[in-house]
Predict the structure.
Amino acid sequence: MFRKKARKADPAASSPSPVRPVSPDPAFRSLADGLSQADLAGMNGLSLAFFGDAVWELLARRQVLVNEKGRPQALHKKTIGYVNAAFQARAGETLLPLLTDDERAAFLRGRNASPGHTPRNQKTADYHKATGLEALFGWLYLTGQTDRLTALFARILEEEKLHEEDQNL
């Protein structure tokens, strides 16, 4: 049938180029571009949670990818441990005393919103707290507070590790 032409080896291609970390700033500018403070202030809690859900999922997937080995299916199962209402509700309770007034307001906007439904396998209170956490993470990301966002996520992971250690005693 068809033959692939043999390519000559490029000596420059054989030496690996150094990997440089990618700054989140360009991505942030493109995602938040066009949103004013008034836009964010007027955004309802469910809209913030809609965006925050994606932010949370990316943080959870990164955490699993960096710390776990395995096939994608196993990584997905591990990620589900972070991306569920019960875990997010515990995380919200952990963070609530640490939040600033503006952060608490974003959390409450999500928690007090009426989503219109609750998944059958989740408690209503957990679902509302999880929505609050997602709204907080969406608000933090959209306001450019990515350092604070990652610090809060790290705190959640620390608390969860302590929770797991207590459960194993």
